[in-house]
Each structure stands twice: as C-alpha cells, then as structure tokens.
Amino acid sequence: MNSQLSLDDAQKAQEQLATQFNQIGRSLVLSNEKTWELFLKQKESDIIPREFLPIIKSILLGKPIVPIVVYRDIAAEALKKYHYCPVIRVLMKMTDGNLMPELVQHSLKMTADVLRPEVQPGPSIK
To answer: Where are the chain's structural domains?
Structure first.
C-alpha cells in the first residue's frame, strides 16, 4: 500500500492514543478493562469494524499486537474512509472534548497527510 503516513507518525499516534486512554482511566479511577468497556459503550464506537477492536484495544493499552506497518496502513485507510480517526472520536466523547492538545494536533496532521490532493486518486489523463 502506498501510504503517506510515516512509520514515525504511526508510532507517535499509538503512543499518544495510549497516553490519552490511560489518562481517561485514571481520571475516572477505572481499571484498563473498565475503561475499555466504557470505550465500547460509546455510540461513536459503533462505526469501528469489530475485527479491528482487538488491535485498537492493544494499542490503547500500550501493547500493540500488530507491526507498526500494519497499524499505519489501517489508520491510513480509516482516515481516507471517514476523514477523521474513529478512535479519537470515541476518546473525544469520553473526555467531553478535552483531548490532549498534542493528540489533536497529530491526528489533524495525519489526516491532512492522507487527504492531500496528490495522494487521492484522480481521473486518469490520457
């Protein structure tokens, strides 16, 4: 896959998602498992394909179960499809919009990188 996301961007996103998830759990005095249950109870989590939930859970817990290249490609496809990160949408709901500024900034950067016009398929010119 020709992704416009670097592995460094993907790694940074994973780390920031895990940090945000951890902060949510601590602020609510919940275990990781209870915080994950709360994540799944959010209506916004419904659009996340169920087959990706184990991967997302592992990332949020800071112990990714897929190689960074696989995560990068999954993230790029989600950003192309939705024009935003569905995981961040759930975390935003859980924090009442009070996400870590660096997570928001990095997510916007990644989304812009993926949605740049030169990255999008266009009409073929003959």
So the answer is: 7-114
